[in-house]
Amino acid sequence: MLSRFLVVACCLLGVLAGPAWAGDQPDVSSKAVVVLDSETGAELYGKDADEVRSIASTTKIFVAMAVRAAKLELDGYTEITKSDAREAKGGARTRLEVGQKFKNKDLLRAMLMSSDNRAPTALGRAAGLDHDALVEAMNKVAKGLHLKRTKFTDPSGLHGNVSTAREMALALRAALTDPVLRDIMGDDYEMVYAKGKSRRGIGYGSTNQPLVAKRYDVVGGKTGYTKPAGYCFITAARFGGREYLTVFLGAPTKPARFVDFNRIAAWIDRGAPGAKVAVKRPSSKSKPTLDTDVRGRVANP
Question: What is each CA distance from 75 to 34, 98, 163, 200, in whole angstroms?
Fold first, then answer.
């Protein structure tokens, strides 16, 4: 609980630490960043947005989309196996014990909210997909979204997988069109119960600290970390009634990715001065609009 509080505090205060602006635009430390309007795909801000990078556990949104496409039975139960434990080796601590059975929707929660690394292959198996078939299905999702630089070799994100900030933003947009995934990624805390263990629940809190902090209207997203990828964060948030997709890859520290988000959020609140696409501030009777005629770079849907 204390560590969670400290990270939230860093999120809230980090925007004030050090220079927050470089000219009109926010000064961010992540290696690759993009901000897209969710409705139009227009880019407001980019920093090496098309550079191919490791994406760590943000990978898991593709697992979720792949098993949903394979008609995962949400109310069905799946047992955690030794194979799942082997797949998760080298990742963060798991709370899904071998031999226990969990509802598939709860495994989605464990995977998307707290990035439990035993969940991806268990979910794949529940949807009739072994390791290789799950990876193939994830690549099929990327191909279907026309993400040409996104490639998968591993379901968890611990041992590979690459994309770009722009393509991850477009992937997140697709994931959030699924009401089940949107609801899970927008949830900050859930209790998960193993079958037959109703009195011994597992509390899963979201690693999406801006969602937990509630300073901004955060829709939902995913975090990730490996040494090659650095600290990663993808999330959508609403400003003035409009939804934006924000991606931060390769942040130098765990709190830095959330500090970067706060700086971007504060910049959008200011009207996004210097943005590639001008944000027209809404009147009290209208929603904000984007001026894409002059400076807009529109991403492929």
Answer: 36, 20, 32, 19
* pLDDT, tens digit, 9 for 90 and up, residues 10-29: 544 444 444 565 568 899 99
Which residue range(s) make up the domain with 161?
Answer: 2-298
What tens digit of pLDDT does each residue of 280-299 get? 665 544 445 554 433 333 33
Q: How many domains does the chain have?
A: 1
Cβ pair 187, 206 in contact under 8 A: yes
Nearest to 31 by CA among 231, 208, 175: 231
Could you tell me which residues come within 8 angstroms of residue 44 by beta carbon, excluding any fewer than 6 positions away? 35, 36, 37, 244, 268, 272, 275, 276, 277, 279
Whether the Cβ atoms of residue 54 and residue 80 lie closer than 8 Å to each other: no
**CATH code of the domain in which 48 resides:** 3.40.710.10
Return contacts of 158-162, CB within 8 angstroms, 24+ apart: 158/56, 158/57, 158/88, 158/90, 158/91, 158/117, 158/226, 159/90, 160/54, 161/54, 161/55, 161/56, 161/59, 162/52, 162/53, 162/54, 162/55
CB 60 within 8 A of CB 77: no
Q: Across the strands, what pairs with 244? A: 37, 237
d(CA 212, CA 225) in angstroms, rounded, equals: 19
Two structure tokens written together for 83: 């194979």
Counting as low any pLDDT under 70, the low residues of the chain are 1-23, 197-199, 280-301
Burial of 19 (0-12, 13-18, 19+ CB in 10 A): exposed
